[in-house]
Request: fold
Amino acid sequence: MIDTTEKIQFTHSEIFLRKDGIVEILIKESSFIGRDECVEVVDSYKEILEPKKYPLLHITEDYVTIDKEAREFAASKEGLMFSKVEAFVINSLAHKILANFYIKVNRPSVPTRFFRSKEEAEEWLSKYL
Reply:
């Protein structure tokens, strides 16, 4: 496994491989996430991950905007190339509405769930380690 202490930082997010094998993605407060930002994140996985599938934990801070192209890319084969399963921690009504839309319209091909707490998400992801 590649060095788990390496953290990749962008203006919009931070990505790192945890010692338990979960890839944690923190989407920073007030960030805009479009297709380009999603591609940037997936490309960064190649720097810290072996070419296999991982459980991914996305933690979304407040006031994050995610556009249609980002949701489409995130659910695509390319967007999911490193994803075994995905958990998202969300805390706003707007993100809950987007989450339901993502599941019903974009239909990611890997198990995907949304949670109100990091602990709940980690418990669910642990079943896929």
